[in-house]
Fold:
Amino acid sequence: MVEVFGATTTTEEVLSGVRLHGKRILVTGVSAGLGVETARALAAHGAQVVGAARDLAKAEAATAQVRKDAAAGGGSFELVALDLGNLKSVRACADALVGKGEPFDVVIANAGVMATPFCNTVDGFEMQFGTNHLGHFVLVNRIAPLIRDGGRLINLSSAGHRYSPVDLDDPNFERTPYDPMVAYGRSKTANILFAVAFDKRHRRRGVRAASVHPGGIQTELGRYMGTEALKTLVEQINQRLAAAGKGPFQFKSIPQGAATSVWAGVVASAEEIGGKYCENCHVAQLVPDDVNFSEGVRGYALDADKAEALWKKSEELVGESF
Structure:
């Protein structure tokens, strides 16, 4: 009997009966929230998990339970330094992993920032696009040879991709008035398009890529929004849900939020999720750009031509070809 998972499914429910011994998995952003739970669940079921974080001291404290559960479940956990907002750090992390030469079965690009005030990365990119997309773009492409045949890349995106397509003419808001949620939307659309393009390039050796929306979870990700802004956002969502005849928005717990990453990474079939956008532990449906449903993915985020254009622009911005 095939388990039917959904919005309230947790990581432990997804992994019930699943043993991951012999699997090696990289998870970025393991200093808080979804990254910690993703790493914990995988390591608890026997995986060798490498967690990447900008602040290693914070990550060390945040992952104490990860280490305990790894030891109990026959898995392992180690930390590596990675600042996605600094390409020197990204390249150093990638070079160290490649130098070590140990392959990965799954890479989960989990780290990210949301709705930041306008600022730039060390390399001069708009912070959300630079961190959420370009940092991962360089890291993943540099370590791509380490991903085993039949492996997977899972990019953390968001329903926030509906706020905006990518803008390849002005990615750093040099001419466009800055809006924190539009910038977030651009970066989350980029995460989806990157998975589409990566999947196309690597599927010939069985490596598949997908993007996932974890759902609405109250984690450190929303620290820049403030209480009133978050309240207003939830009210707007509820108005759209009511207009569609749906019930009010429900926040997920962290184990529920991390479930789709884990499902897409190690449980779902590769053919099912390859090149797709997933939510609530299933592949999302395509929805029209002018419809505000609570679920689904916009067509512009899965457009193969836009994915190729983003890849080319990203190479131009970071000064590397992959």
